[in-house]
Amino acid sequence: MKKSKAIDQLTQFIIENKEDFYRLAYSYVKNSEDALDIFHESIKKALIAKDFLKESDSIKSLFYKIVVNTSLDFLRKTKKISLVDEETLDFLSTGREDSYQNIDLKRSLEDLPIKYQSVIILRYFEDLKIDEIAEILHINVSTVKTRLYKALEILRIKMKDERI
């Protein structure tokens, strides 16, 4: 693929899917500013990695891989506790009525180890296929299936325990 064509396709792909990638980064760091930083850093890394693009089909998996790895690198570097962002703080301080939609599921998902959290997020929230997840995370398809099964089993047990 020609370099200018690769950059054009990459740029177009990022523009068309920017909300999805921001949401993906946010699902890891739970902070809007950090998610934006990760997204911007991912764009920079993608432009540097443009030489690895051989065909347009690899743009999707390349950029997902970059966003996931940048998010994981950020978490490793900061190892910070997830703080409440200003929007949530403002919402909680207004005294509005509590909303408990899927809060147990959200907490249970956040409690999963990151290797299980990643496959759940990519499969069910980003709607990626198992082979795409394997490519993004650099693991075997069978490992993805195993982690999905294990993660769902852990979630099922946690959700059942929280109902009792």
UniProtKB/TrEMBL annotation:
SUPFAM superfamilies (alphabetical): Sigma2 domain of RNA polymerase sigma factors, Sigma3 and sigma4 domains of RNA polymerase sigma factors
Q: Which residues form the RNA polymerase sigma-70 region domain?
A: 16-80
Keywords from the UniProt entry: Sigma factor, Transcription, Transcription regulation
Show the InterPro entries listed in the entry. Answer: RNA_pol_sigma-70-like, RNA_pol_sigma-70_dom, RNA_pol_sigma70_r2, RNA_pol_sigma70_r4_t2, RNA_pol_sigma_r2, RNA_pol_sigma_r3/r4-like, WH-like_DNA-bd_sf
State the Gene Ontology BP annotations.
DNA-templated transcription initiation
One Pfam family linked to the record: Sigma70_r2
Molecular-function GO term, any one = DNA binding
Q: Which residue numbers delimit the RNA polymerase sigma factor 70 region 4 type domain?
A: 105-153
Provide the family line. Belongs to the sigma-70 factor family. ECF subfamily.
**Full protein name:** RNA polymerase subunit sigma-70
What organism is recorded for this protein?
Heyndrickxia oleronia
Q: Please name the taxonomic classification of the source.
A: Bacteria, Bacillati, Bacillota, Bacilli, Bacillales
